[in-house]
């Protein structure tokens, strides 16, 4: 992937999992002479967190500026059924089975 002609505002920010430092692509990193507008992906593999020295794999994508944690919130809402408690799931499953059974019995009774 080329880093040329990228709108700096769309560049994703990355947060250090060790110390919480956030790499801002729109600002770059003066500690390593990284110019503003450099995507995190474009940083050298030898690049380290300027605060704690953690390597790139310790960083996680937290999205572009102006879109804080939107990704995580979408995930939460998107889970839907998976956020039900096991008890609620049992009620759903048992209810569906009971309905199916009643339906089957009624068909049987019509014959
Ligand atoms: Zn760090």
Automatic annotation (TrEMBL):
<dbReference type="InterPro" id="IPR024934">
    <property type="entry name" value="Rubredoxin-like_dom"/>
</dbReference>
<keyword id="KW-0479">Metal-binding</keyword>
<dbReference type="InterPro" id="IPR024935">
    <property type="entry name" value="Rubredoxin_dom"/>
</dbReference>
<keyword id="KW-0472">Membrane</keyword>
<feature type="domain" description="Rubredoxin-like">
    <location>
        <begin position="11"/>
        <end position="62"/>
    </location>
</feature>
<dbReference type="InterPro" id="IPR018527">
    <property type="entry name" value="Rubredoxin_Fe_BS"/>
</dbReference>
<keyword id="KW-0812">Transmembrane</keyword>
<dbReference type="GO" id="GO:0043448">
    <property type="term" value="P:alkane catabolic process"/>
</dbReference>
<keyword id="KW-0813">Transport</keyword>
<keyword id="KW-0408">Iron</keyword>
<keyword id="KW-0249">Electron transport</keyword>
<dbReference type="GO" id="GO:0009055">
    <property type="term" value="F:electron transfer activity"/>
</dbReference>
<feature type="transmembrane region" description="Helical">
    <location>
        <begin position="91"/>
        <end position="110"/>
    </location>
</feature>
<dbReference type="Pfam" id="PF00301">
    <property type="entry name" value="Rubredoxin"/>
</dbReference>
<protein>
    <recommendedName>
        <fullName>Rubredoxin</fullName>
    </recommendedName>
</protein>
<dbReference type="InterPro" id="IPR050526">
    <property type="entry name" value="Rubredoxin_ET"/>
</dbReference>
<comment type="similarity">
    <text>Belongs to the rubredoxin family.</text>
</comment>
<keyword id="KW-1133">Transmembrane helix</keyword>
<dbReference type="GO" id="GO:0005506">
    <property type="term" value="F:iron ion binding"/>
</dbReference>
